[in-house]
Amino acid sequence: MDLWLKIFVPIAFLAFTILVPVNWTNTTLERSNLTYSDLDKLSISNIPSGSHRFWTHLVMAYAFTFWTCYVLKKEYEIVAKMRLHFLASEKRRPDQFTVLVRNVPPDADESVSELVEHFFLVNHPNDYLTYQVVYNANQLSNLVNEKKKMKNWLDYYQIKYSRNKSRKPSLKTGFLGLLGTRVDAVDHYTSEIERLSRKISLERDDIVNNPKSIMPAAFVSFKTRWGAAVCAQTQQSRNPTMWLTEWAPEPRDIYWDNLAIPFVSLTLRRLVIAVAFFFLTFFFMVPIAFVQSLANIEGIEKAFPFLKPIIEMKVIKSFIQGFLPGIALKIFLIFLPSILMLMSKFEGFISLSGLERRSAARYYIFQFINVFLGSIITGTAFQQLDNFIHQSATEIPKTIGVSIPMKATFFITYIMVDGWAGVAGEILRLKPLLIYHLKIFFLVKTEKDKDEAMDPGTLGFNTGEPQIQLYFLLGLVYAVVSPILLPFIIVFFALAFVVYRHQVKKAESQPELSFKPQLCA
């Protein structure tokens, strides 16, 4: 966050000392036939065609660009030094010596285990240490999770019985506990746990003894980091689709469910998700256009004439034009991160960090197309539709370019609603707090459930990073076009610096999670 403050504080200072006086001195010049607001007096829209003062905006655009590139260069030099220092001082970890090998070719004479060991003994004789094949244990994992739920219910009814021994707890075994015969709850869950234990034992034996349960993938460990690095970053065979290697994620970072996905289906999955993301992004323009129409008082009055007396009230009119579009857009985007995370999981990424990175990248692309470009196009082009109809086609790009600064008002309110309020909500952790109370009210039965419900989760890289990048983009775009937006950007980054620094420090003070035994490898 301090990087963005280093960029935008000097930009804001120069903009308000140079650009704002220039714009105010041109308020009496002839305007085009576009519809302006008072805020446009502080934007580039106030500079008419042919004005000799336009050079100021042009020169400042180059100055801000060079300043941003210079600060980014210096910052990345610092980041690179910190990264090298971290790698040099880091303790030895298993993932530093381990490579994930996928798409092991089938062999009629050797099993996957024998083939992996023979291949690496021949091709990496000096560095190869050992291997662990990947088993398709997703069914076993489901049984284990089901047993955990049954054990949790058993603990709940045992605690309930210990508090009131005059009455043994009972339940119905039918649909949602509403139908079926009534049985003793403790005996029922005890028998269910025993049944699942036998089933888990049989499933485990079947996985170990069934060659079809072994996936064409393995974790291969090396004696040195150099050997692991060479293997992870080089092609292992003449066929580029066989013996594919990559760095193995940290054990706690592995998303085990996706290790059992055949490599052949990964390409098809990613193609399907790419098409789905394309339609999700561009069909979302419909609600974006609706949100932007909320700021158009005239359009609302034409569609709903009976609301005109209410809309013309000063307070209501200010709320509709100011905060309603930003609030409505934020509501539309509430479920988007969860949808993008599900899409990333379907693609087959094998690490939780990889899922978050892909989800963050798509979230930023979505916001860039819909929130930034969509708000500009639907918010300005639709408002100036009458001008488009009565002018030549060659003038349309010019009209759109002149109209873009007029969306500064919307982005200012969006920064306040999504940025300021969102950062304030981050320090309070409102969403995890709400989920915690819902779980306490509806789901928590034992102390174990309560401990799990109190887990606040991570900082949310897949949502926080795209938000920061979007505001960085808004600051650079509107620095010269409409500098009145810059103070709001600076306030956002200042708040974000304080809040996220606090959250990171708090996360560092928490004890590290212990390694848990995994089932899929």
From TrEMBL:
InterPro entries: Csc1-like, CSC1/OSCA1-like_7TM, CSC1/OSCA1-like_cyt, CSC1/OSCA1-like_N
PANTHER family per the UniProt record, alphabetical: PROBABLE MEMBRANE PROTEIN DUF221-RELATED, RE44586P
Signal peptide: none
Domain CSC1/OSCA1-like N-terminal transmembrane: 3-75
Residue intervals passing through the bilayer: 7-24, 54-72, 271-295, 315-342, 363-382, 470-500
Domain CSC1/OSCA1-like cytosolic intervals: 96-258
Keyword Transport: yes
Entry protein name: MEMBRANE PROTEIN DUF221-RELATED
Domain of life: Eukaryota
Pfam families in UniProt: PHM7_cyt, RSN1_7TM, RSN1_TM
CSC1/OSCA1-like 7TM region domain sequence ranges: 269-507
